[in-house]
UniProtKB/TrEMBL annotation:
Family classification: Belongs to the SRP72 family.
Molecular function GO terms recorded: 7S RNA binding; ribosome binding
Keywords annotated in UniProt: Cytoplasm, Endoplasmic reticulum, Repeat, Ribonucleoprotein, Signal recognition particle, TPR repeat
GO biological process: SRP-dependent cotranslational protein targeting to membrane
Organism whose genome encodes this protein: Lolium multiflorum (Italian ryegrass)
Annotated Gene Ontology cellular component terms: endoplasmic reticulum; signal recognition particle, endoplasmic reticulum targeting
Highest taxon, organism lineage: Eukaryota
PANTHER family: SIGNAL RECOGNITION PARTICLE 72, SIGNAL RECOGNITION PARTICLE SUBUNIT SRP72
Major localization class: cytoplasm
Subcellular location: Cytoplasm; Endoplasmic reticulum
InterPro entries: SRP72, SRP72_TPR-like, TPR-like_helical_dom_sf
Pfam family of the protein (one): SRP_TPR_like
Keyword field contains Zinc: no
Designated name of the protein: Signal recognition particle subunit SRP72
Length: 160
């Protein structure tokens, strides 16, 4: 059998290297070492450009480090990728007190608990209390419907 070429050996080692980098990324995130997590996410992206989980980890690590400008830069850098980072963008704008921009981004988003919670916080900051209350009521409905699913029904007449 002929010896493997350097390119073939590098290609075989790459998945293991990326897997090791993801393990390191996970350790840094679990330890709350967000600046280090960004560095490792960059290493993953160098080895596997456009890797969705690495992009998300990088954005969230910047947010957790209170570096919303860097998070927004990472989001802009990923715009060509088929990744929806609009919630994170809205959250960054919320943190920067660009409330109208954040609301505009949230409009049209899938109605999730996270979206309703952020939306209600934005409305609260804007002193739009009726809208804030409406968002919290939607959030409450989502939360109760999830509990019903967990309990195997609507939440009524359960023994638990």
């Amino acid at each position: 059998m002929p010896p493997k070429s350097k390119a073939a050996a590098a290609a075989a080692a790459e998945p293991a290297a990326v897997e090791d980098l993801f393990s390191a990324l996970h350790r840094h995130i679990e330890a709350g070492e967000f600046p280090q997590a960004v560095k490792v996410a960059d290493q993953v992206l160098a080895a596997a450009p456009g890797e969705e989980d690495a992009v998300r980890c990088k954005v969230v690590a910047h947010i957790k480090s209170d570096a919303t400008d860097k998070a927004l830069a990472a989001i802009r850098a990923a715009e060509r990728l088929p990744i929806d980072l609009s919630f994170y963008k809205a959250y960054c704008y919320y943190r920067q007190n660009k409330l109208q921009e954040a609301l505009e981004i949230l409009n049209g988003q899938e109605e999730t608990a996270a979206v309703f919670q952020l939306e209600s916080q934005i409305y609260y900051r804007l002193a739009r209390m009726t809208d804030c209350l409406n968002s919290y009521e939607k959030l409450q409905k989502i939360s109760f419907s999830r509990l019903g699913c967990l309990w195997g029904g609507t939440g009524h007449n359960n023994k638990y």
